[in-house]
């Protein structure tokens, strides 16, 4: 069986982002075009559909590392920031956008909240497995040596 471990993360996240655009309950708010993703970022994201890409990335992170708390996700999506002439320091990502995406994914019944953090529901796990299987099938069409691993 093919899982999210077996396909390239970039292809999986791109395919999931396209699915998130049509998922009921996951919508990009109006303010998302104007905000930065954290204090480490100098500008808002260049990709207009960054909201769906982040939602797809969150699903993949929960698949691989769940249960995961909001603080862990803020740390994972953070980055470094230069502070005048001092060495660069890590800054966590903004929690508002991550929290709102997680709430939207909960409404879509892809994620659930537990006492240890957020985890994927069986429906969310099935979406990732199905998408991974489709990507692996497309990759195995290009490279016939991958067929034996399916």
CATH superfamily: Winged helix-like DNA-binding domain superfamily/Winged helix DNA-binding domain
Topology as a string of helices (H) and strands (E): HHHEEHEEH
Helix content: 40-55%
Number of domains: 1
Can you tell me the CATH topology? Arc Repressor Mutant, subunit A
Q: Give average pLDDT, whole number.
A: 86
The termini sit apart by 6 Å
Question: Sheet bearing the most strands, described?
Answer: 2 strands, antiparallel
Going by helix content, strand content and strand pairing, the class is alpha+beta
Task: Note down, in words, how this protein is organized.
By secondary structure, the chain is an alpha+beta fold. It has one domain: Winged helix-like DNA-binding domain superfamily/Winged helix DNA-binding domain (Arc Repressor Mutant, subunit A, Orthogonal Bundle). The chain contains five helices and four strands. It has helices spanning 9-22, 50-65, 70-76, 95-107, 122-142, and strands at 79-83, 86-91, 111-114, 117-120. The strands form two sheets. The protein has a two-stranded antiparallel sheet with strand order 1-2. It has a two-stranded antiparallel sheet with strand order 3-4. The protein is globular. The mean pLDDT is 86.
